[in-house]
Amino acid sequence: MIVTRKRLVGMLAIALVAAAARVASQQLPLTDLTVRSFSVGEAPEAVVFDGAHLWVASQFTNTLTKISVADLNVVRTFRIGNGPVGLAFDGTSIWVANLFDNTVMKVNPADGSVAGTFAVGRGPAALAFDGTHIWVANRYSDDLTKLRASDGARLGTFRVGERPTAVAVRDQQVWVVNNRSNTVTRLRANDGTLVGISRVGTAPFDLAFAGDDVWVTNLYESTVTKLRASSGAVAGTVQVGHGPAGIAFDGVNIWVANNGSNSVTAVRPSTGAVLATVPVGKNPSGIAISTTLGITRVWVAAFGSNNVTMIDPRKVALIGRAQ
Question: What whole-number distance in Å separates Cα of residue 156 and Cα of residue 170?
């Protein structure tokens, strides 16, 4: 799904075979959630919000697309790296993970200029900012690289599980999803010491924090696993669509991009209730949340449709209160 079209087909085939019956949810027509799509480059995979604009990394065209959230217009598209698949925002700059360059780039969001290019491990695929450092999950070398955000200096490399596909930081701990190990690794952020390892579902892909919990998508089981942030203990499992990939929390609900069912599922984090399933483009992968002027939107990158879908989650919030 991530590296080549051939891999995408193979991963989805396994996901569809392994998927169990889904929990019933309310199917909502597109117009009910004020859905709008924006054309971007080929094979968009990662999205990130910088406070004013949404940035989309398109793997096969090596581009970054900048979308104004205020007026919902595509501002500009920039050439970037080789195989951009991961994004992060550090409060000042956009960081891009280039899967085939073994580099990450620091980008000026005002004009798309590259302020620095930094060598990391093999197959950098996911990024996280901890307030001072950029953490890079290197998919092919099974490790994390820690960079100082101010100047890109490499401060350490730390082994994790097989094929890390997502990384996030909270409370001085770095959480890493290990796609081929079926685990989530926790490291201490200051020195990379192993804190714990949690077993999750088959082929975990992404994670998101929500309150006191961490939610992990399991690509081949069509589920998300709920972990306690305090201990990493498994607190529950929720059935969603086929091939869940990207995941995000909007402050109210969990949103899951179902790569194999061309949809997004909204889940109430307190109970695990599935509130709605929204059709989007083909093979949705990356997902991000934006909030401006009190309006929250969910953005979903559709790898197979070369577009990004914007969803207004307020209707889902109403459904959640009624249940």
Answer: 19
Q: At 48, which CATH number? A: 2.130.10.10
State the first-to-last Cα distance of the chain, in angstroms, to the nearest integer. 35
CA gap 275, 261 in Å, rounded: 16
C-alpha 114/C-alpha 96 separation (Å) is: 10
Give tens-digit pLDDT for 296-323.
999 999 999 999 999 998 876 555 444 4
Model pTM score: 0.89
Instruction: Give the single-character DSSP code of 103.
Output: E
The tens digit of pLDDT for each residue in 237-248 reads 999 999 999 999
Distances (CA, A) of 244 to 166, 248, 316: 13, 12, 19
Specify the amino acid at residue 119.
A
Which structural domain, as residue segments, surrounds residue 186? 5-322
The number of distinct structural domains making up the chain is 1
Q: Half-sphere exposure of 109 toward its Cβ, with a 13 Å CA cutoff?
A: 21
Please state, in angstroms and rounded to a whole number, the distance separating the CA atoms of residues 80 and 75.
16
d(CA 10, CA 15): 9
Residue length of the chain:
323
Sign of CA pseudo-dihedral 142, 148, 154, 155: negative
| The two three-digit tokens of residue 154, written as one number | 């490499």
Tell me the pairing of strands 133-138 and 143-148: antiparallel
Q: Which helix (H) or strand (E) holds 113?
A: none
H or E stretch including 243? none
What tokens does 315 get? 């209707």
Find all residues with CB under 8 Å of 154, minimum gap 6, and list them: 118, 119, 120, 145, 146, 147
